[in-house]
Amino acid sequence: MLGLALQALLAAFICYYVQWTFGQPMIDQPIVAGLVCGIVFGDITTGIMIGAALQVIFMGSVNVGGATSADPCTGTVMAVCFVTKLGIDQASAITLGTAVAIVANIWFGLCFNVLSSFWAPVTDWAASTGEEKSVFLAHFGGGLLFNLLYSLPSFLGVYLGAEPVANLINVIPPTVTSGFNAIAGLLPCVGMAILIRMLWDNKIAVYFLLGFVLVEYLGLPMIAVAAIGVVIIVVTAVREMENLDLQKKIQSLRKTGVASSATSQADMEEEDFFA
Fold it and tell me: pTM surpassing 0.70?
């Protein structure tokens, strides 16, 4: 079990270190972390599938500053490990991974707040020396320390909890397992609902309705719906650019005092149409 826990630690550390040391390329998001976990645990297909399922759940969950809600990277590592190495079914693993992500976020915030108070003077001192080597060591050394601690829940979760979780899943009655499956099916809906709530605007509500009709009633595949969306975006952008150019021309004419005499009735009607 120690070897499996070290694999989980490695997968989490890769995601955290690249994310927080090299400009936040979003490698800690489940869709990418699942790929990394799949490579580490030896099952890339399963890793990507679980990462995609968890990404839908956490798509609307964005951690900004101190406003954090979950740590999806740890949840992804645990879920992929449970499925690929312990044989737990994917629905149960996704449910457990979601719970772990929320709990691990507490540890994440604690480490960040406590360590920052100790490490900030070190980085200030490195910057005050004016030496590139000191700044380099402070940056990458701090990243090594921080991200090792961030990865600790993945290690402990597998080392201490993998076997008990596997035994627990084996003795759970089928009715409870069915409940896990139902929850796993609802969690992506919750994630999409959170995302739509963030993006919702009455002006674009018609496009959500259009997408629903295209998929549910016309049976179009997602690629076709995406292509239609691209066409709508291009047409809308062209119209907005034309409207902007027209407004600039009208403002220019008004500044020169020509608009009042040179603007014909047709131009005014065109202006009202694009406005």
Answer: no
